[in-house]
Amino acid sequence: MLVEIITPDAKLFEGEVSSIKLPGTNGGFEILNDHAPIISTLTAGEISIVLDKGQKESFEIHGGVIEMQNNKIIVLAD
Q1: CATH says 2-77 is which class?
Q2: C or N: which end of the chain has fewer Cβ atoms within 10 Å?
């Protein structure tokens, strides 16, 4: 699935991933390929992604929103 992580200053990440863990306002959650469409608010915390090649990356955010639809995730983060 395609993930874009965007802040007001820059695009932090764009690429194919196998999973993403996010700090949701009501608790952390993970999204895998073919997940149902979702929109959620995010709180301060860490976004962790696992790339298709098994490599891991993480990003600290102060809040934001996420939308997933048709295996494309857009994260608008502070």
Answers
A1: mainly beta
A2: C
